[in-house]
Structure formats: C-alpha cells, structure tokens
Amino acid sequence: MAPLYPKIDSGRLHGCTGAASVVAPFLRAHALEPSNDQTRLDRAAIWLSGLCLIHCLAVPVAFVLTPSLSAWLDATETQTHWLLFGLAVPISGIALFRGYVRHPNRLTVSMGVIGLTLMLLGVAHVFGEDLEIILTTAGVVSVMVAHIRNLHLGHDHRPATDEH
Q1: What is the pLDDT averaged over residues 53-80?
Q2: CA 29, 34, 37, 40: dihedral to nearest 10 degrees?
Q3: Cα(45)–Cα(70) distance, rounded to whole angstroms?
Q4: Residue 142 neighbours by CB distance under 10 Å
Q5: How far apart are CA 27 and CA 103, in angstroms?
Q6: 80 contacts 132 by C-beta, under 8 angstroms
Q7: Could you give the CA distance from residue 155 to residue 140 in angstroms, rounded to a whole number?
Q8: Averaged over 89-101, what is the pLDDT?
C-alpha cells in the first residue's frame, strides 16, 4: 500500500546526517496532499449542486406532467429552495475557503461566490419568480464548477494562478 504522503529525506532538506530529523513528522503532516475533509466537502457540494440542478429542472416538468401535484409542489417549492440554499452556503463557504488557503485561486472562489449570490437572488425572488429557475440554475452550475476546480487544484501540486 502506497503512503499517503511523499517520502521526505529530512536529512537532505536540513543538512542533517544520520539520525532522523525532528522536523520530518511535521513535513509529512503538511505535505501537499489534499485533506480528506476538503475533498469530502467539495464532493458533498458537487452532489448538492447536482441535486439542486435536478430539482430546478424537474419541478417545472412535474408541474406539466402531473397537474394534480402542482398545488403541493407549489406550496413546498420556496421552503425546499431555502433548505437547499441553507445547506449550500456553509458547505461551499468552508470548502472554498479551505481550498483558497491551500491554493489561492481567485477565479475559483469568485465563481463560487457569484454562484451562491445568483442562487440567493433566485431563491429570494429579488427579480421576481419568473427568473427564479434561470438564476438558481446558473448559480448552481457556477458553484458546481467552482468545486470541481477546487478539487482539481487540490490535486495539482504546481503553484495555482488565476490563469487556470
């Protein structure tokens, strides 16, 4: 089984010879591997974004196909959007912040913030209910792409720049 961290020759790094350096465990603990928590948060945010996207696209179809359920769907629609948005904000916020600390990439964070803002504008009906699906769908896609970028940047050990 391969180790989760790269093998580090601490003697060569610090000019020490012979006995293992005191710094080696610290270096192993802070190797450039993405944290399991970070990966889990990004993946959870991607799944949540996918669920939101399916919801946003499936509900209008359900209104058309099953008119008898439309009253119930309409009554629970706003609560469902607020619930999904309430889950998306902390998960995305923490994951994108941790990703930015590990690999500062403003484009990734900006995409996430813009996506969450679009979702808020849609859920809060700032521009009316007519634009709710368009705004939330665009926001969800933006958040999903931000988390996919966050995952890829976490596995890329080159310095991150805003050119990605």
Answers
A1: 78
A2: -160
A3: 29
A4: 20
A5: 18
A6: no
A7: 23
A8: 93
